[in-house]
Amino acid sequence: MPHTLTALVFLLLNIGDAVSTYVGLGRGLSELNPLPAALLARYGLGAMLSAKAFIILGALVLVLALGRRYPLLWRGLWGISIGMALVVVSNIVQMVMG
Q1: How far apart are CA 62 and CA 59, in angstroms?
Q2: What's the pTM?
Q3: Which of 1, 11, 19, 72 pairs with 94 at a CA distance of 20 to 30 A?
């Protein structure tokens, strides 16, 4: 159960990032992550969101496949989730303040 919760939190926070980024871009904010920003500028929103989805799902598959053998991967997923929570909060604050 704890690993299911970890994966769910990771997934939901990344969805929150994608949604808040989408809304923020519509309100004139910019993508601060250089790789998604480059994809957005060159290929558009669909490419940026697709790349984010690919990376998120790839990370989940990796941890699900190797997490039993390398349990620290689950802690890494929590660490990334904490970072994503900060990103989502930052996106929301920028939209409210700006």
Answers
A1: 5
A2: 0.87
A3: 11
